[in-house]
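Try it yourself: sequence plus cytidine-5'-triphosphate, in.
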Amino acid sequence: MLSGRRVTLIIGGGIAAFKALELIRRLRERGAAVIPVLTRAGAEFVTPLSVSALAGERVFQELFDLNDESEMGHIELSRAADLVVVAPATADLLAKMAQGLANDLASTLLLATDKRALVAPAMNLRMWQHPATRRNVETLRGDGVLFVGPVEGDMACGEYGPGRMAEPPEIVAAVEAALAAGPLAGRHVIVTSGPTHEPIDPVRYIANRSSGAQGTAIARALAALGARVSFITGPAAVAPPEGVAVTRVETAAQMLEAVRAALPADAAIFAAAVADWRVKQVAAGKIKKTRSGDLPEIALAENPDILASVAQMGTGRPALVVGFAAETDDVVENARAKRARKGCDWILANDVSPQSGIMGGAENAVTLITGTGEEGWPRMSKEAVAERLAARIARHLEEQA
Ligand code: CTP
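Structure, out:
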């Protein structure tokens, strides 16, 4: 149910706009209040009168409407709801969102809001498949925008394929999922994930076998409990989760910078397998073999320790800092020492020796080391480890509050 929840519904200009009327009705049936915003193009497809009649609210249309500014300014309007839904989201609206344009009421609300956006794209399939739209969708997903649809089907223009707006019941389900109030609602958590790539020259780099699977699962589990997640990932083999803000980096230095930019946070989970060393002097051109057979000398420099620098920061330190300890020998003992050395609150020790099959595998066997003791968790899937950890984090933050 959506009782007590407020949804700003932006109706874009597409033939699917007529379905927005049914969407308003269904959202209200579930108990939500709907604040309707009709774009100029949207008003070519549905009338303001039918929208406001179904919403039981006045419909907002123009940015420079003095009445609106005196009653409720556009900034206030952008914050008035728990979720901003765009249905139908046209190619034009997605492009504006991806670029951060603010040249009408809808785009200004989307740029000014401090709430999540859920978009239901609807457009001709060629427009949906166009590289420009693909780029915009990718950018928006990375910004944490949620998508529902489009679905495959017959289109008003006579073609068949992906591009039809999701049906109203499906959009309502996505709204309910986005508004599910979990124990981490209102919390911001940073998660680092994946390996880092440290360049040697323009074509070669130093890397490691991390797939990013554990960090990705943790980000997904935290988001499922309602957290706002900033996911900072190196070049990982697995795709980042939906509904989280993704920052892609290559090197440890870039990862540190992205973590700093994402602060402040309530908790920070460092699941990335950060390279301990980088190449001191990255060659500007490709290093060539020599006729004499001399081998290149690659001097290394130590990378910044991201976990330690956040764990040891004074003001602005997240209330909970969690690290991983990837070990091949004396796993728990080494991890215990690592926790003390780095100054983090919790550390999850895992055995990454080749015979464990954990690095790059689907399962993990961890020992959680906190300030008060140690807990060996049975071997389980990386998703199960993530869910258990997310639940522990939620409980801990609740106890601290
Ligand atoms: N870590 C980090 N920045 C680094 C190195 C590691 O943030 N430059 C974090 C990892 O994300 C992980 C934890 O520190 O949460 C421990 O990583 P690990 O590779 O096990 O430890 P190292 O610092 O490399 O220590 P050692 O070389 O002694 O194993």
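One thing you can check immediately is this: The chain has a mean pLDDT of 92.
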